[in-house]
Amino acid sequence: MLSAPTQHRIALVTGITGQDGSYLAEFLLSKGYDVHGLVRRSSSFATGRIEHIYRDPHDAGARLHLHYGDLADGNSLERVLREVKPTEVYNLGAQSHVRVSFDMPVFTADIAGVGTLRLLEAVRVYREESGTPVRYYQASSSEMFGKVAEVPQSESTPFHPRSPYGVAKVFSHWATINYRESYGMHASCGILFNHESPRRGETFVTRKITRAVGRIKHGLQNQVFLGNLDAQRDWGFAGDYVEAMWLMLQQDEPDDYVVATGKTFSVREFAEKAFARVGLDWQKHVAYDPRYNRPAEVDLLLGDPAKARRKLGWEPRVDFDGLIAMMVDADVEMAAREKTLRDAGFQVGAME
Fold it and tell me: Residue 346, class by beta-carbon neighbours within 10 Å (0-12 exposed, 13-18 middle, 19+ buried)?
């Protein structure tokens, strides 16, 4: 059941400069929210995914605000909460690359795991001090299922994570439930299966493939190197999935939900369809490189979104073929711009 808003709604989003954060910011602004995002201080700008919002011809840009802070720094979280006074908090911040988590396990655990605990504690203290009934969303992950105990995976499927990232996400998931049960927080977890878009980072396999398709189509490279082609994933569109996040915080009672399409495809199938979109044979351009294999592989992820469909009224709008078409078309256009720059004498680097 949806809860009717009783006050002006203010959202704080960690990870706002990422794929999910940018789509969520757009969605919340369209609902009339003031949106505040947490960004880490660095020597370069990483706001490319949300810069278009500031150019909005209406007032969306004026309702988007960025604040320096870090999930590694509890003091900064407390400060931002006091400044922003949010009614909803969405925790999307993490070191989210599964393969990289094997190379940086401690950092991943600190940000994706303990960082959640810092934010939960900061929200708890802020709620008690201000009396504001903050609602909290935790980005859980299908990687928590890992070596799956059953197919498909639902909210009751046991976790068996197979990466430092998955382990950190299990910690965050149970920490959120603990704060919900211990302190009466309206805290919900979205167990999101793989969700992609033209804004996906270029080191993630789907975007790596579609970027390569665009560049190969325009003669900027000839091959792309991939790891396990047999891994199967439940892939959806990130723009659809952020709506499910919001719907969770509109319910009278907090809960946990699997967000997925209920269909699974292999990396090989993704590559085949992506190259076919531009009339190319994927087998002539895809090469195997064991460096991209994980030390412990997750072979199959397939979500059961029945609960989200039933209780939230949520359905994915973009199917697998539509997702691939969207990503390939965007990256073909990007590669065309790169080719224009190269032909004008600018250096354009190749991708692996």
Answer: exposed
Q: Which two tokens stand for residue 63?
A: 């309702």
Two structure tokens written together for 182: 């211990």
Q: Which residues of 100-112 are buried (b: 16+ CB within 10 A; e: fewer)?
A: bbeeebeebbbbb
Question: How many angstroms separate the CA atoms of 128 and 103, rounded?
Answer: 39
Q: Which tens digit of pLDDT belongs to each residue from 113-138?
A: 999 999 999 999 999 999 999 999 99
Task: Give the integer Cα–Cα distance in Å for 17 and 19.
Answer: 7
Q: Which amino acid is at 303?
A: G
Q: Please say whether the beta carbons of 169 and 112 come within 8 A.
A: yes
Helix axes 238-249, 19-30, angle to 10 degrees: 60
Q: At what angle do helices 115-130 and 74-84 cross, to 10 degrees?
A: 40
| Cα–chain center distance at 193 | 9
Q: Which domains does the chain have, with CATH numbers?
A: 10-198+235-259 (3.40.50.720), 205-231+264-300+318-343 (3.90.25.10)
Task: Tell me the three state secondary structure of residue 250.
Answer: coil
Q: Which residues pair with 256 in a beta bridge?
A: 189
pTM over 0.70: yes
Residue 75 CA to residue 12 CA, distance in Å, equals 16
Query: Looking up tokens 């990396």, which residue turns up?
Result: 267
Quick one: which of 179, 37, 47 has its CA closest to 118? 179
Q: Note the maximum CA span of the chain.
A: 62
- The single-letter code of the amino acid at 302 is L
Q: Supply the Cα-derived Rg of the chain in whole angstroms.
A: 20
| 237-273: pLDDT as tens digits | 999 999 999 999 999 999 999 999 999 999 999 999 9
- Which pair of tokens denotes residue 254? 């907090």
233, 207, 244: which is closest to 330 by C-alpha?
207
CA 207 from centroid of its chain's CA atoms:
13
Catalytic (active-site) positions = 141, 143, 165
